[in-house]
Amino acid sequence: MSSHDTTPTGGETYASAGVDLDAADDVVERIKPHVARTTRPGVLDTIGGFGGLFELDTERYRKPVIVTATDGVGTKLAIARQLGRHDTVGIDLVAMVVDDIVVSGAEPQVFLDYVAIGKLDPDVVTELVAGIAEGCVRAGCALVGGETAEHPGVMPATDYDLAGFAVGMVEKDAILGPHRVSDGDVLIGMAASGLHSNGYSLARRLVEGLDLSEHHGLDRPLGDALLEPTAIYTKPCLALAEAGLVNALCHVTGGGLPGNLPRVLPESLGADVDTSSWTPGPLFELMGRLGQVEREEMFRVFNMGVGMVAVVPEHAVEAAVGLLSEHDVEAWVMGRVTGPAGVRLS
């Protein structure tokens, strides 16, 4: 045999090291229909290339500004793995990224995902990507690429993690933020669908040992409530921006209202929040009761029923609430911008 002969001789292979290339090829074929659902004007290529191609609409944007964001789902994934349900956390992944992008008034254009998994299970990965695709459809952005990485010997076989990255676009003079906010502006809350994707390290500790198939005083099994996907506010928020009804938007994520509202207010101004203007919902009440969690801590860890806040001029309140209602978003006046700095919960 020639010293240059590369014919396999029964030695080690990638498969024997724990990486299944055939399963990876299978996944690519399975996810193509899901990816196809997310296509939108500007997409120039289909999945399978080395990079996703997207053409900027230069007729629409005079001075385009790119807005980027990246995020993950966090320990909510542990609940999905525990229940063997992987079709919703992909929606969470998209939501956590695009809801950050839209606060600038930007429209998400493209999304990419990264799936790290101990042992590639085509059924699980297909469910995950189907959820990601559904999230992209809800957000109006295209899933133009991604990566699935098998990590044998590093992650347990059934373990996985998700990360996402998106690019949005906004006209430079249309960027929302603290520079537009004035003393006297009104805070409009938008209802959260549940815990969204924050606070799950505490939530998992609180429900440890409970049967997630039982209701525990809720209107559905606890597991279903914990896996409720994060709301995607992109389209209603863009509608507010396009109508000129909003000065700033606040995505309520880790840190809750006290940690996030200051990010969209001028340094000299704060917010008075009337917490009696809404009811957080039974899941939040259950979390607080299970761990005897103090009210201040609840508001720092969880969104407490408010997933997004619009900061609007007083004259635009009625129109803004009405427009959100047209987009099936429950919205209400929850407070006001005023000095001094800080978030005051009454």
UniProtKB/TrEMBL annotation:
It is found in: Cytoplasm. It catalyses: 2-formamido-N(1)-(5-O-phospho-beta-D-ribosyl)acetamidine + ATP = 5-amino-1-(5-phospho-beta-D-ribosyl)imidazole + ADP + phosphate + H(+). It comes from Euzebya pacifica. GO terms for molecular function: ATP binding; phosphoribosylamine-glycine ligase activity; phosphoribosylformylglycinamidine cyclo-ligase activity. Residues 183-343 form the PurM-like C-terminal domain. Signal peptide: none annotated. Residues 66-170 form the PurM-like N-terminal domain. GO terms for biological process: 'de novo' IMP biosynthetic process; adenine biosynthetic process. GO terms for cellular component: cytosol. PANTHER family: TRIFUNCTIONAL PURINE BIOSYNTHETIC PROTEIN ADENOSINE-3, TRIFUNCTIONAL PURINE BIOSYNTHETIC PROTEIN ADENOSINE-3-RELATED. InterPro entries: PurM-like_C_dom, PurM-like_C_sf, PurM-like_N, PurM-like_N_sf, PurM_cligase. Its EC number is 6.3.3.1. Keywords: ATP-binding, Cytoplasm, Ligase, Nucleotide-binding, Purine biosynthesis. The gene is purM. Pathway: Purine metabolism; IMP biosynthesis via de novo pathway; 5-amino-1-(5-phospho-D-ribosyl)imidazole from N(2)-formyl-N(1)-(5-phospho-D-ribosyl)glycinamide: step 2/2. Belongs to the AIR synthase family. This is Phosphoribosylformylglycinamidine cyclo-ligase. Its main location: cytoplasm.
